[in-house]
Design brief:
By secondary structure, this protein is α+β, with helices and mostly antiparallel strands. It has 5 helices and 7 strands, in the order αβαβαβαβαβββ. It has a 7-stranded mixed beta sheet with strand order 1-3-2-5-6-7-4, with helices on both faces.
C-alpha cells in the first residue's frame, strides 16, 4: 500500500508530530541545560569568570539585558559567549558553523559570562596567552551572522572553543571581524 506524501498528509500528521515533540522537548531541554551548565562550570573555572546559562533559548536576550543592568558600577562586564567543546577552531568555516549553530536552540550553549574586568580585550590577552591575537577578517556572511545574533540575543556573542590541548576565543569587533586569541587546553571529566 502506498501512502501519498502530499500537503494534506503533512497537515494531518502535524498535530501528532507537534504532540510528540511537546512530550519530548521538556526532558530534552532539561538535559541540554544541565550539559550546558556543566560545560560552563568547567570553562568558567579554567578562565576565572562566573555567570549563567539561560534555561530557555528565547530568554537569552532578556537575561543578557538584565545582566548588563546589574553590572552597572561593578568590576565585571557581562559578555555573551557561545561555548563549544568540539576542539579549538582554527579555520573560518568551523567558526562560521559554530556562530550559525548558536541561532539554533538545540545545537550550541550560549552563556552569559561575567568577565572580571571592565576591559574585555585586556582580560582576553591575560587569559589566552599562547599566541599573539589574530584578526579574523570579516566577510559578508559573517557580518550577516553578527547582525542576526545581535538581533536574537541583544548583542553579538564571543565564541569560545576548547579541548584538552588548547582553546580559542573569538572576540567580536565590527563589520564581521573578530579577534582570535589562543590559549591552553581545558580539561573536562571526559578527558581525565
Amino acid at each position: 500500500m502506498f501512502v501519498p506524501f502530499d500537503e494534506e498528509y503533512y497537515q494531518g500528521m502535524s498535530k501528532y508530530i507537534e504532540r510528540a515533540f511537546l512530550e519530548f522537548y521538556p526532558g530534552f531541554a532539561d538535559y541540554q541545560h544541565k550539559c550546558g551548565v556543566n560545560m560552563f562550570e568547567v570553562v568558567s573555572a579554567a578562565f576565572g569568570f562566573d555567570g549563567s546559562v539561560p534555561r530557555h533559548f528565547d530568554q537569552i536576550g532578556q537575561e543578557y539585558k538584565l545582566a548588563v543592568k546589574e553590572a552597572n558600577g561593578k568590576k565585571y562586564l557581562p559578555m555573551l559567549m557561545v561555548i563549544d567543546s568540539g576542539g579549538a577552531v582554527t579555520i573560518r568555516e568551523e567558526f562560521t558553523e559554530i556562530l550559525e549553530d548558536s541561532l539554533n536552540p538545540f545545537l550550541e550553549t550560549v552563556a552569559i559570562a561575567n568577565i572580571p574586568s571592565r576591559d574585555l580585550m585586556k582580560w582576553a590577552k591575560e587569559s589566552f596567552d599562547r599566541a599573539s591575537p589574530e584578526i579574523l577578517k570579516g566577510d559578508g556572511y559573517i557580518s550577516e551572522l553578527q547582525l542576526r545574533t545581535a538581533e536574537v540575543f541583544g548583542s553579538t556573542p564571543a565564541v569560545l572553543t576548547f579541548d584538552g590541548d588548547r582553546s580559542t576565543l573569538f572576540m567580536p569587533l565590527k563589520d564581521g571581524q573578530y579577534v582570535r586569541f589562543t590559549g591552553g587546553g581545558v580539561i573536562t571529566e571526559e578527558d581525565e
